[in-house]
Amino acid sequence: MPYHKNKQQAFQAAQQGYEDVQDAVHELVLDGASYGSQLSHLKNEVNEAYQQIENALETASEHQKTQLERFKNDLSSIVNEINQQQ
Does the global pTM surpass 0.90? Predict the structure, then answer.
């Protein structure tokens, strides 16, 4: 049972990290005075989310792996979009 609990906790942490990135993206104001600090915060959130996803992939079920890979793809799209705007 502890293994299942750790697997679920790892997945939930990855999911929360992904949601934190989504929140940071929505808060980003491209022409705002605090854009630089917002961008730095977003980059930190993305890096943290990637790490949480990688950790969760180590113990994930097949269904969870599919969702985690989707999270990674979405994060890559976000990073590419931000890089194009700079």
Answer: no
